[in-house]
Write a structure and sequence with these properties.
This protein has 3 domains: about 5-175, Rossmann fold (3-Layer(aba) Sandwich); about 175-355, 3-Layer(aba) Sandwich (Rossmann fold); about 360-435, K homology (KH) domain (GMP Synthetase, Chain A, domain 3, 2-Layer Sandwich). Helices cover about 40% and strands about 20% of the residues. The protein is built from 15 helices and 16 strands. The chain has helices at about 15-20, 25-35, 70-80, 100-105, 125-130, 150-160, 165-175, 190-200, 235-240, 245-260, 275-285, 305-320, 340-355, 360-370, 410-420, and strands at about 5-10, 40-45, 50-55, 85-90, 115-120, 140-145, 180-185, 205-210, 215-220, 225-230, 260-270, 290-295, 325-330, 385-390, 395-400, 430-435. A 7-stranded mixed beta sheet has the order 8-9-10-7-11-12-13, with helices on both faces. The structure holds guanosine-5'-diphosphate (2 copies). The site of one guanosine-5'-diphosphate has 15 residues, from helix 1. It comes from Filimonas effusa. GTPase that plays an essential role in the late steps of ribosome biogenesis.
């Protein structure tokens, strides 16, 4: 079993500052190149050679100005349910507040280790003030400054002391497993697919709690292939109202999507692709998720020679511009090609991890650029000198050139097509950046 630490505390005490500091290296890479600040609430930390999951529960509290008792209870409950240890963060500059006290009362009910972190202790004077927090009556107390980093080492030492080698290894391994989400409209056959998959072999290894209580991560070991399926069972129970069904199916899809590496979009062959499906699909592509489309209930379709080919063609045109994805015709009911769906999703996951050596990339792409130059803009002839893949989670490429702003969409499409022709990025959105040399 992996080891998970949750950070709780009222708004503005410095939870995300601490969280970001802890996950600094990984985050910096992702954000720097894509220019997207991701509001991550979950990550893997590494300290003293031990790995553990960190959840910043603060992100789950709606409206950070007025935090109501119920929201606080919810946050603490998530933390208690999902974590192996809790960091309870407070702020020395505001002293002990009523909210701090009510959180402490809630935390008293758990037998899991609670570490009180008194934050914003930036200097010696603050340390004197901070001693009032001893009155909270929590045994493990740490005076830290998330801003300067002082004291955070002791806190992390205390955490890593609780983690054995096995838990650390499991944490790393679980985080490296491919995560798939099965998404789609109500009644397309998602649960049938899941049940058909599980029926094939005794598969479930364990249920791992997700980053919110609304998603469940199930660890599968199907025919020697390990992966995690993300399910959103929690929401399903809460919302039985028929009117809300479609709305919640969208919310559910987005939640599952955020946590997944590859999304398996299930369609009903008879109904075809809906506008809602296209929206979900584009959103997944924008988020850089791998994609596979499964056309389910294929058993209900009257088939002639070219039925599948024509169906696929029509579907690809609806999914354009990004349609270099696997499309599979399946039947969950008759268990046709369902495991193929998993194999394909694993391939897409591999494609998403693909790193092209710079020399190979330049050899291929500079040739393609030579064969077809970017059009001259305002008398400027555009020269692309060098291409490199960026160290991001979603395959991203930086093209270094003299006039980056003058490269227009059609030429970008040409370059992307060339990349896709020479390297296998099937099912994976790729990003192209143009930078001044
Ligand atoms: P959260 O709402 O608990 O996640 O709090 P944030 O991490 O967003 O921090 C709230 C504010 O406190 C921000 O303006 C931070 O810059 C500031 N802050 C966080 N940690 C420290 C610290 O150690 N010292 C000082 N002086 N300010 C801090
Ligand atoms: P979900 O809402 O997406 O989870 O859909 P369900 O799995 O509950 O399936 C909705 C309905 O479609 C049920 O009546 C299933 O029996 C039916 N169904 C699911 N897969 C297939 C299939 O491959 N072929 C046929 N003919 N029916 C299916």
């Amino acid at each position: 079993m992996s080891f998970t630490v949750a950070i709780v505390g009222r708004p503005n005490v410095g939870k995300s500052t601490f969280f970001n500091r802890l996950l600094e290296q990984r985050k910096a890479i992702v954000d720097d190149v894509s220019g997207v600040t991701r509001d991550r609430q979950y990550g893997v930390a590494d300290w003293n050679g031990k790995a553990f999951n960190v959840i910043d529960t603060g992100g789950f509290v709606a409206g950070s100005e007025d935090v109501f008792e119920t929201e606080i209870r919810k946050q603490v409950q998530i933390a208690i349910d999902e974590a192996d240890a809790l960091i309870f963060m407070t702020d020395t500059t505001s002293g002990i507040t009523e909210l701090d006290e009510s959180m402490r009362d809630l935390l008293r009910r758990t037998t899991k280790p609670v570490l009180l972190a008194v934050n914003k202790v930036d200097n010696g004077d603050r340390l004197l003030e901070a001693t009032e927090f001893y009155s909270m009556g929590i045994e493990h107390i740490f005076f830290i400054s998330s801003m300067t980093g002082s004291g955070t080492g002791e806190l992390l030492d205390a955490i890593t002391d609780m983690i054995d080698e096995k838990a650390s290894d499991d944490t790393v391994r679980e985080n490296e497993l491919p995560k798939f989400a099965i998404i789609g409209q109500p009644n397309v056959g998602k649960s049938s697919l899941l049940n058909a998959l599980i029926g094939q072999e005794r598969t479930i290894v364990s249920d791992i709690a997700g980053t919110t209580r609304d998603t469940i991560h199930t660890h599968y070991d199907l025919f020697q292939k390990e992966f995690i399926l993300i399910d959103t069972a929690g929401i399903r129970k809460k919302n039985k109202e028929k009117d809300d069904l479609e709305f919640y199916s969208v919310i559910r899809a987005i939640r599952a999507m955020d946590e997944a590496d590859v999304c398996m979009l299930v369609l009903d062959a008879e109904k075809g692709i809906t506008a809602q499906d296209v929206n979900i699909y584009s959103l997944a592509a924008r988020k850089g998720k791998g994609l596979v489309v499964l056309v389910n209930k294929w058993d209900l379709i009257q088939k002639e020679t070219n039925t599948a080919r024509d169906y696929e063609k029509e579907l690809r045109s609806r999914l354009a511009p990004f349609n270099d994805i696997p499309i599979l015709f399946i039947s969950a009911q008759e268990k046709t090609r369902i495991f193929k769906g998993i194999e394909i999703a694993l391939e897409v996951f591999e494609n998403k991890q693909r790193k092209i050596p710079t020399s190979q990339l330049n050899e291929v792409m500079l040739k393609a650029i030579e064969a077809y130059h970017a059009p001259v803009v305002r008398g400027n002839s555009i020269k692309i000198k060098y291409v490199t893949q960026l160290p991001t989670h979603t395959p991203s490429f930086a093209f270094f050139c003299n006039y980056p702003d003058d490269i227009k969409q059609p030429y970008k499409n040409y370059l992307e097509n060339q990349l896709r022709t020479h390297f296998n990025f099937k099912g994976v959105p790729v990003r192209l950046f143009f930078r001044k040399k």
